[in-house]
Amino acid sequence: MPLNFRDALLLPIWDKVQQGDRLSLEDGLALYNTNDIISLGKMAHFVQQQKSGDAVYFVLNQKIEHTNICILSCKFCDFAVKKGNPDAYEMTTEDILATLTPEIAEVHITGGMPADWPWERYVDIVRSIHEKFPHADVKAYTAVEIDFFHKKFKLSIEEVLRQLKEAGLRTMPGGGAEVFSERVRKLLFNQKIGAKTWFEVHKTAHRLGIPTNSTMLYGHVETLEERLIHMIKLREAQDETGGFLTFIPLAFQPGDTGIKPRNHFTSAIDDLKTIAISRLMLDNFPHIKAYWVMLTEEVASVALNFGADDMDGTVGYERIAHDAGATSPMKLAKDQIIKIIKDAGKIPVERDVYYDPLNVYSDYVIGKIPYLNSVPFYHHFEKLQFKILPIVPRRMGLLEEQGQIIAGPFSLMDYFRQEEQLELLPFCIATRDQVKSVMLFSKEGWLDLNGKTIGITDETATSVHLLQVLLEKKYDVKATFERMHAGVNDYSKYDAVLLIGDEALHRNKHGLAGFELVFDLAKEWYDWKKMPFVFAVWAVKKSLPEETKIELDEIIGHSLSQSEPRYADIGELHGKQIGLSRNEVEEYLTGFNYRLGEREREAMREFRKLITEIESNTVPYRS
Ligand code: V47
After folding, report:
1. What is the mean pLDDT of the chain?
2. What is the mean pLDDT of residues 616-620?
3. Atom number, ligand 1, closest to the C-alpha of residue 214
4. 383 alpha carbon to ligand 1 midpoint, in Å?
5. Position 623 pLDDT exceeds 50
6. Nearest atom (ligand 1) to Cα of 217
7. Atom of ligand 1 lying closest to residue 172 CA
8. Of all helices (H) and strands (E), which one includes residue 41?
9. Which atom number of ligand 1 is nearest to the Cα of residue 176?
10. Which residue of 222, 250, 287, 309 sits with most ligand 1 atoms within 8 Å of its CB, as the best mutation to test the pocket?
11. For residues 519 and 497, what is the distance between their CA atoms, to the nearest angstrom?
12. 603 touches ligand 1 (CB under 6 Å)
């Protein structure tokens, strides 16, 4: 894609970005040093679109800073005070519960570290919120706090996290990372944990199935090189665990810290560069957050076209930044966030703590399955009035049901359920014999799975039903299914796990430790029925005007015919992100049939017959 660069030094970096090649520290410095801000923004926006399409996420959240009393004295922090200070405060669990309302989807808890709170008080906060507000996901305690609990209460980091998870902790916030530089740590926060412990805590969380966020505090005494090293360390950790959800650059608020004069905020240019560069450097991070509280609403809104795909949320009452002089409001109304995102030309997507969409606030939204096998539909998709929302099949079905998505490649089960409202387009995602991306990783052979527990992906219903059909109808075996959340998971407790999409493809190539046997569900089906398997069908809302349906039919058909002869080219970038070579991408995509023909319709009928027979029996879920 040609961009009109004013700074020729950016051209080799743009080549790398388009190829999906990693940027180096030197590339990062060239980006920081450029005056060609617009080209930098366009490059970051290119990556943002690859990752999130037109979506920008926000969450109805409430920040809880349970106390400002802290045993540490970090120089950059204007929030913390010592016990006995007239400004000191401590919230009881009841105080905290009283600030929450039923519509809140995320409670973000972080605070000072007082010397005299017992361990049970921290666990009780999480448990009480989880019990009283089951729809609110708890994102609590930074790595600094977790390490403090570990040392003070003589529990291992793993045990601290295990107990919090058991109490209802869903994810961890990204705070406390500051800048991963010993030089800066000694200058500004020498009592606080450094990079080693911060990563140890986050990696332990990932291992236990707790995804986490990450931050970087910039705009104080750090160098540009230190910022980039910070990003590279995060990128390496993400390669290892895949457990980071988002990166949040936190613009330093000087306040009365004495580190910088009160009005020496970071410049908007520095903020936008940092957002864009983090999007480009952190190629393995799904999201980049423009935290409006520290950036201001105005900079955050521009950032939505500079690589950021997340606005955090309504926030409620915030003090860490405001005590240090932040001029943004303490909370934003939902309508205001929606307006900012719409004004940036994006789809406002209300999300939960895992970035699963709950509601979208835009017309003409088309769902896009975010896996390699769907690339041919979208590579040449001419958008016109349509907006693209990447979303896993199961969620796509739910949003369609709520009337928030007008078309997409729906999971077959969702299509069956919503058939009355939908009209088929002549496209599908069907296998010929094998699929390679709907896989059962198992400790046991099929027959030995009787009575065992299988962890199942919550990303689609079709593969789960196919598994059930194979177990019960082909092998005459009954197992119990337990829903796992997508992303990091502790798989070891299951006898087998069902994975789909890119994760299955990746694990199929590299294996899943502890699971010796790997079964391809489409191959199992094919060997049994000698039929293709239809995982998804394209459909549009019946209620749409005829011309819109025709338009979509043409756009998808065009994209497919352009893509079909060039699978290696069109899939290369996506394939690289999941570790597949050009050849592997080509071979994988050639294994699909994207046109809905009579054989596919017959396979759909056969599958429907089998699931109807089973559904009249039992659905073996344990949630
Ligand atoms: O770790 C402290 C920072 C962080 C100042 O995970 C300051 O979704 C600017 O981590 N100026 C806590 N920043 C906040 C945090 C956070 C915020 C929003 C979302 C998420 C998330 C996490 O605030 C601390 C520290 O780096 N901080 N003082 C200051 N003067």
Report:
1. 94
2. 55
3. 6
4. 37
5. no
6. 26
7. 6
8. helix 37-52
9. 1
10. 250
11. 10
12. no
pLDDT of 323 higher than 80: no
pLDDT at 397: 96
Q: Could you tell me if the CB of 249 is within 6 A of ligand 1?
A: no
Taking CA atoms only, the protein residue closest to ligand 1 atom 5 is 77
**Between vectors from CA 516 to CA 512 and to CA 521, what angle results, nearest 5°?**
80
Contacts of 293 (CB under 8 A, 6+ apart): 312, 315, 318, 321, 322, 326, 328
How many angstroms does the Cα of residue 63 sit away from the middle of ligand 1? 11
Ligand 1 site, residue 575, Cβ cutoff 6 A = no
Ligand 1 pocket, residue 110 CB under 6 Å: yes
Q: Could you give the 3-state DSSP secondary structure of residue 101?
A: coil
How far apart are alpha carbons 261 and 396 in whole angstroms? Answer: 49
Cα 460 from Cα 393, distance rounded (Å): 5
Residue position matching structure tokens 């366009």: 42
Fill in the amino acid letter for 56. Answer: V
Pick among 3.30.530.20, 3.30.160.20, 3.20.20.70, 3.90.550.10: CATH of 8-358: 3.20.20.70
Give the closest residue to 77 by CA, choosing from 208, 267, 252. 252
pLDDT digits (tens, 9 = 90+) for 70-114: 999 888 888 999 999 999 999 999 999 999 988 899 999 999 999
pLDDT band at 330 (very low <50, low <70, confident <90, very high): low
SS3 letters across 228-257: HHHHHHHHHHHHHHCCEEEEEEEECCCCCC
Site to probe by mutation for ligand 1, drawn from 79, 139, 215 as the one with most ligand atoms within 8 Å of Cβ, is: 215
Q: Count CB atoms within 10 A of the CB of residue 613.
A: 12
Regarding the beta carbon of 248 and ligand 1, being less than 6 Å apart is answered yes
- Highest mean predicted confidence (pLDDT) among 100-109, 200-209, 607-616: 200-209
Structure-token pair, residue 18 = 């388009």
Q: How far is the CA of 320 from the centre of ligand 1 (A)?
A: 7
Task: Give the tens place of pLDDT for each residue, 26-37.
Answer: 999 999 999 999
How far is it between the farthest Cα atoms of the chain? 77
Of 63, 615, 49, the residue nearest 381 (C-alpha): 49
Q: What is the pLDDT of residue 589?
A: 97
Residue with CA nearest ligand 1 atom 6: 173
E-assigned strand segments in 117-210: 137-140, 169-171
Cα 177 to middle of ligand 1, angstroms: 9
pTM confidence score? 0.94
Q: Using DSSP bridges, classify how beta strands 387-390 and 365-368 pair: parallel, antiparallel or unpaired.
A: parallel
Return d(Cα 226, Cα 218) in angstroms, integer: 10
The residue type at 195: A
Q: What are phi and psi of 420, to 5 degrees?
A: -60, -30
- Answer left, alpha or beta for residue 317, where phi above 0 means left and psi between -120 and 50 means alpha: beta
Ligand 1 test: best mutation among 263, 295, 320, most atoms within 8 Å of CB?
320
**Distance between start and end Cα atoms, the chain:** 46
CA 513 to ligand 1 center in whole angstroms: 36
